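Lecture 7, part B: from sequences to assemblies.

Below are the input chains for today's worked example.
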Amino acid sequence: MADKTIYLDFEEPIYKLESKIQELKSCCDDKLAKDFNKEISNLEKKVQQMLKETYSKLTPWQKVCVARHANRPHSIDYINALIDNFMPLAGDKSFGDDEAIIGGLGFFNGQSVMMVAQEKGNDLESRIRHGFGMAKPEGYRKAKRLMDLANHFNIPIISLIDTAGAFPGIEGEERGQAEAIASCIMEGFKLEVPYIAVVIGEGGSGGAIALAAANRILMLEHSIYSVISPEGCASILWRDGAAMKKAANALKLTAQDLYKFGVADEIIPEPCGGAHRFREETIKRAGDVIAKHLAELKKMTPQNLSKDREKKFLAMTRIAKEG
Amino acid sequence: MNWLLDYVRPKLSVAKTEKDVPDNLWDKCPQCDAMIYGQELAKNLYVCPHCGYHLYLRPRKRLNMLFDDSEYTYLETPKVKEDPLNFKDTKDYRSKLKSAREKTKFDEAFVAAYGKMGGHGVVVGVMNFNFIGGSMGIAVGEGIVQAAEFAIKHHMPLILVTASGGARMQEGILSLMQMARTTLAVKLLKDKHLPYIVVLTNPTTGGVSASFAMLGDITIAEPDALIAFAGARVIKETIKADLPAGFQKAEYLKKHGMVDMIVDRKDLREKLICLLNLLSNTFVKGE
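Predicted structure of the full complex, as structure tokens:
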């Protein structure tokens, strides 16, 4: 049987087919192999077709589920695959080290870059260590410190965004979560180096935009970026947590919506079936698109890089003046 | 460069003095339950004369109280795309906007004006909590950006008085983007060394606190104001324990180093003028 835990609710028919394929493969002896192989290859074709049908028209809520899928490549996977000689750097030099945001220097296609990335973790132990990807003030202050360091040495910055949101809790409030996020956004505008933000999974509200006041905002095909989670929105506006599908529709939070709004600059296509099925290929595609944008930004002067960011955000949501 | 000496008289003249919504005859203090005669409450700047609780002060009254002789000129309300998401929950967003406009007599949850304060030319922006919870959508974000641009153009300091539940979710990601845009507005002011003073009033939370509200050169809070990133209810549900006394109140924030001072409303104008005097009386480099 196929591992049911990796299938999402709406993938039930795909799960059934893939289970059947596995069953056939496991019970097949040499005599029957020829007949079975034909059957298996037909079924595999059918699975491909079903994936294509399902993934070409995912609903917003289905995209939320895909964006949060546990098997989706996380920041650590991108760093391991794309960055050579990664040198993690820790701490905000003031309170502590928050591993909900990991960061450090490394080579990306031979170019020094500063990675600032939100990490959710993959199992219980690592999820706890990374605070489930929900950064505390010290996490945002670390990010700010690393961005400042990169700026000082003229090193481009790549941020990877994957968070349900900033940590909500007593420690966060008493250490100034609001100020930490605001200052992190402000830091983005001060930079005179290329700054590229990539939403790889979930772009959750203020916790996400803290690392996205960037020259370029790239989004994976099935990633989301929203002012509030569909669940939160449902409980406030519909007064019914179960209305999250309606909320997901209303919020217009998909990469495709954000591209239409001019918030996302480019959508990175995922292989049919999603990043959680084709992790390596997804990471490779993301690397290629990041490289393309980095090459463009590297042609700009330090001052123009900062002006480019200002222009982008000033123009956003503004009605162009006539004449 | 000194913003006081370089003060350029603005040419805009869209002054309007609409009549205020009539005051209630009697109001009840939410803290001590005392019944207060409406006129007495107004005279006391909507601070309870019995317990000192700071009730919500509407934008027009706030501007009247801050500017010299209550004289000021509104900046034009920016034109923005309305209801960009075509948002509907149990009610549609357009009808919410309409009823907020009827209720408050304002176009949006933010209004800015310029005038003199202690003789200094200043721009003051005020959030309107009665307008969909003072939430920040495109119009509020754009209003703040334009207030900052106006302040820069005329070399004036900017004072923002906040009151907001956070981002306006009916405008989705475009409301979130206002966190970045308002932060950028503050950055542009700072680039010009123009003072940016924030007055945090009850309540200032969510996306507003996590952007321009927490980036003041000087941060003032009104007594007992709720100032928070995450809502207390959310935190309580998450940790399943009681919250510390005075959690997320102005005094708590001051204790944790997040605000410069807590100022009673009756002293606010005087304190702001004092700050403007101090910040304008700077030496000229190289002389």
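Note for the exam: Strands of chain A lie at 83-88, 101-108, 111-118, 157-163, 195-204, 216-220, 224-226, 266-268. Keep this in mind when comparing with the next example.
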